[in-house]
Amino acid sequence: MSLVKERIEPLTIVFEDDGLVPNNPMPFLVYKGAVDVTGGHPEETIEELFGDNGWGDMWRNGIFDYLHYHATVHEALGVARGQAKVRFGGDSGKVFDLAAGDVAILPAGTGHQRISASSDFCVVGAYPPGPKMQVTRPTPENHAKALQTIPLVPLPKSDPVMGKDGPLVRLWKPRS
Fold first, then answer.
1. For the whole prediction, is pTM greater than 0.85?
2. What residues contact 7, with CB distance under 8 A and at least 6 apart?
């Protein structure tokens, strides 16, 4: 039995730099209901999927309730349990309703913040090979630094949900 819905395409959105949160010219991706987490171990299911697709350095928890971004690494967030409202793209971004089985993939620099969540909300976070994740708060100084580091973040070799031939590989292109 497959862990992922076949031929699923992610929602895509490009968030503009707002002067504090740099975001990224590559699209933010959301797979709605992509992962079958109905078994008894949804966190392990998502960890297995991400690991099989070359994403690691995983953790289990929620999403911070303050606005932040990661300027040195891309991030995948797989919802294992519960649901939440999460704003992506900074204060002028968009609020998404995420639920168990959804996966959000954030190119480096994408602002995110939990607005609300169910008491059982649990996310598995993962990263492609490369630098360790660092939490960055939106300040003018951090923004200036991030504009230098974000273009240097290597593209992942695979989509954490769909693998080496997944939509991320097609949709994320190096800056010209």
1. yes
2. none
